[in-house]
Model the fold of this input.
Amino acid sequence: MDAKTQKYDRQLRLWGSSGQEALESAHILLINASAVGCEILKNLILPGIGQFTIVDPGTVSQNDIGSNFFLDFDSLGKQRAERAYELLGELNEDVKGNWAAKDIHSILKEDPGYLAQFSTVIATDITRETAEKLAALCWVGGQDANNRNPAGKKNITFVWVKTVGLFGAARIAVPEHTIVETHPDNVADLRIDTPFPELSAFAQSFDFDTEDSLEFGHIPYVAILLNYMDKWKQTHNGKIPSTYAEKNELKANIRAGMRSVDDENFDEAISSVLRSCQPTTIPSEIKALVNDPKCEHLNAESENFWILTRALRDYVNDHTKSDGLLPLSGTIPDMKAQTDSYVTLQSIYKTKAKQDVQEVSKVVESLLSSLGLAAGSISQQEIETFCKFSAFLKVIRYRSLEEEYHQPNTKQIDPDSVFPYYVLLRASDSFYDDHGRYPGEGENWEDDVDQLHANVGTLLQSWGIANDAVSKDLTHEICRYGNGAIHNIASLIGGVVSQEIIKLSTRQYIPMNNTFLFDGARSVSAVFAV
Amino acid sequence: MARETHLETTIGTSLVRAVADAKVLMVGAGGIGCELLKNLVMSGFKNIEVIDLDTIDLSNLNRQFLFQKQHIKKSKAHVAKESALAFNPNANIISRHQNIKEQEFSVDWFKGFDLVMNALDNLDARRHVNKMCLAANVPLIESGTAGYLGQVTVIQKDKTECFDCQPKETPKTFPVCTIRSTPSTPIHCIVWAKSYLFGLLFGNAEDDDDEVLVKEDSNDDDIAKELAALAAESQALKEILASMDTEGFAERVFNKVFFTDIHRLRSMEDMWKTRKPPTPLKYDEILHQTEDLPGAMDATTLEAVTLKDQRVWTLRETVQVFSESLEKLSTRLKEMRETDPEASVQFDKDDAETLDFVTATANLRAHVYGIEEKSRFQVKAMAGNIIPAIATTNAIIAGMMVMLAFKIINKRLADCKTSYLVYGRHRPQLIVSEPLAKPNPKCYICRNSYLAIKTDTKTTTVQDLIDLLEGYSISDVEIQESGRVIYDPDFDDNASKTLVSLQLTDGKFVEVVDEDDRKIILCLKDVDMDSLDGERFQIEGDVEEALEQQTQMKQQLRDAEAAEQQAAHVHEEDPDVIMTDDNRKRKHDEISGPTSGTSGSGEEAPLKKSSLTSTAHPPLAEDEVGNGSSTEQAVDVDEVVMVDGESFNVVVLD
Ligand SMILES: [Zn+2]
Done:
């Protein structure tokens, strides 16, 4: 076992070598080496992203040292970008780091296409105006506005993060994020309601009248279910149980077939009745996906995901091949059975899954050739994985910051818990626009309360929401924080944000959409798509 | 103190002062521990004691950022302290490379802290710290992570649920015959390789019997015979051990275990009437085969997966790994025994040679029995009980812990909540919080009253203790210690014995139950007679109050039981409704369907605690959660149970 595999063992259990590879190809830009920014990078450098870059024009202050673990006493007065790069870099020798003690605006002035080299841009300690500008650049792949080359365009994930006192927030924006490996708890697809011929034959191969109790006690529960389901259908016009009473009746039938309480295989069958009585269908989310315009209008630039989804659609529509069902996942759960019958059952499902993959592959190949793409440019492995998880595919289309600022989906935010925080966050931006500083940053923080509350009122009015949605106590609290960061909240929010960036970078698991808010004072948090 | 300006404006100067004065104990300096220590130091905590018995391993470095390569094999506690001090030299950190269960860490020692924080990775230590904190009446912050999931809560005697209020999953056990003679799944083969064969070859003669094996009822004649034959088999293998580290040793072990023994088993025809008989393997036949027979994986997959770690080895590769690892381990053991004749090599999932050996032998056994073979990567997880672990989750949980610490030090227990870091397809939230639960009236651990008692255990007898209790009208008592009966009205053999002669010494918990079923736990403190001012005992705390508390607790228990019967009754009447923990009725769809809408705060999306309170309300059966088509199964991450893990653990029930 090589040292790298051993070092990363505990995380490979979570996202596998494909996830690790994806992570290692990530290049993350951090704008401003704030406490939360450095905590995010720490959590990304440890598991081994490919590269990071820190851009920060500032020097290390006393406040930085108080809240940022990666800026020590020796750093005082030095370049923040350089010191953070040095101390963070020590965390993992496999990760390459870069830094620039410059303002992001001046960098972009010199090199408008600067952002295009990054997979993710994390912005902290920036104004709303800058956030909007950076987010818009990331949205189009980081290309210079005058030099837009749609062919070279790639997704750049934009992440905005802020912590103030005991309060933290994060926002993710990327036009489209597609996921095949969403890591559902269970991909077993047993087809008890619509067994394919080989499966029926397997079920019929068991002798339920056998004298041998050991053999009887080892009939796999899948065979038991298929057998009793078959009998049920024969007396119910070919229909499976649909009402609760009917399902209970089927359970009772199976229970009646037990010879002793030790027949765990029958128990397994009984406890799977409800799930097995759900007709095998295509989930509505997947139906929507195959009807997506991106599926319809494929071109040579289409992501593999969309070519595969189109192939899935064509496969499902060809009933002679698919019976109108998704490809079989091919995995079965553990069950009480003799080794050889378990292995046989496993191979029946695997073989069918393989056949389905082959059919999908044929469609993929013909799509590739019609798009003028090389045969085999989507690997067999990729097609297999796609088929296996085809019932669980996921596409997230985030709202852009621009959309949010002009028309926030305030209805998505729970009015009783985090809504006031969202309003205050936005009101603080308005306050900044008016005063050139954040609330509470002045000589006497209490002087800012009324002004900030006025900003709150204006915002609420513009959204058509009653003025009492935000209590003045909370406004007071935000002012008292004076835009200061404390380490513990930076660390907590940094943990949350880096976790989501890992989900995005590995293209595994479903990342949050689109805003996370947290208040440590009241242990309140929420995720919503504003 | 410019350094703490933001901290002061955020949490207030008085709390900053209280934090600086607080004495905190951190148990565990692993994944959560590193984050926690950093956060404590950066949050103005000045008096921190950290204890961990572990040393640093390469596989820690992907998240335990206070450690680096040059620290491998050093004490986690010491290195964590040094690294943290580099950032705040003013903090007073005491580090201990010790087991928290050692006797010197007494109830009194625990009482010396204002707050205890668990950052542990095993059930046993968690239970111990839980009990000590209850006895010492010190608040405990408990935490755990597994992959993207995590959990954090507060335990305070009589105010909240304790760690043991809800039963925990215990490790799975297997019948001896299944492991030794009739394996049918990969895990049976792995348990055999790790717990039987490995121990026999590289362990001490004494620790033969592994706890995971359960002896079957040997009334059955056949089973008794088989067990006897197995014992003889082990004996024969031990004889081969004499030739360890000599030419041909690997071949002799191989042929004994995979040929002779299998051959014998195969000859027992009765056993194979309903099972596929095993096929013996011969060492030289496999190695001399010109053709390399693939294992369970076919050729195409074999090519696709390049990592040797992640694919199943061919039979010949397996035999090669077997003999190489056996050789290396034998040499290692021989060297160890030169200085310590009792030395043994322990299986360690992160020790490549031990893992190689277990993978190879488990797969050879699987091959013999026609069972699916596994890759080393998979064997590692199955043999090592590996829980995935990453920095991100630990950072979130440690951050939540310090938030709770602020509240506890600020005397605001009521503001504390239990929080879960969750993940689910249908659940937009990341962090879900709920109020701290009340103690479970049935709990055997926290529903006791603890009293410290000082006496000279060398001269004090059990009778003296009984007399003392009589003085408080605690009569007809039954006295136990760690499950052994010391005294009861029908067993007074020990009455005249001294406490010390019964190993009732300093730090021991003596359980006293009276005729009214009131239970008092006496924490023994051994002192010299002359320090007691002529008394035989000195009790810290109020006995009357403890008895009154016990009487109330018994009443609560009766009330709870009555309520439960009532609930069970309702449940029977309406089969279409599932009882949730809070006794609200919800229809199936509400429980298992996707959470509608995308907003909602933690409080409004209560975690179903049904699985956490499994005695009172068993976890929802798979059956009852099923919803959606067979391919789109309802996914409920909120069904968490606490088991042992890399750090607490949260396991998602399917
Ligand atoms: Zn308890």
User: Anything to note?
Assistant: Chain A touches chain B through 114 residues (CB under 8 Å). Chain A has four domains: 3-174+486-528, 197-276, 284-395, 405-481. The longest strand of chain A covers residues 157-164. The two ends of chain A are 46 Å apart (CA to CA).
